Amino acid sequence: MTETEIRALMATFGGAFRAGDADGVAACLADDFIWRLPTGTGDPQGDVLHGREAVRRYLRERFASGQDGVTFSDSRMEILGDAVLVQYRVHGSADDGSPVDAVGLDLFRVAEGKLRLKDAYWKQVSWPVS
Description:
Layout: H1 3-18, H2 22-26, E1 29-36, E2 48-50, H3 52-64, E3 71-80, E4 83-93, E5 99-111, E6 114-126
Parallel strand pairs: 1-6
Antiparallel strand pairs: 1-2, 3-4, 4-5, 5-6
């Protein structure tokens, strides 16, 4: 894929995500897409979603439940061949309502016009104390 094609794919993905459009996000994903979330119970990976349909189901539930009260800022993207690095800041709330402030880095892999991988990492600037 060319850099222009990758930028267009990332813009479509990001726009659908920000709009809460699970089907729009899924349209950007390969059938065998893998999403390693920055949080979860899976050690050490966090939660891992396998496949486009698993992501679609997860996002439909997430968007419908209002769990996505997060905002992203300070976004910066670097394209390195088939790898895309996106740095950003995320603000939101934990499940218990405590504020979350994190700096994130997502590694994406692209091929044949689709996203194949989203591996997300968050550095906690402030995180709720358990």
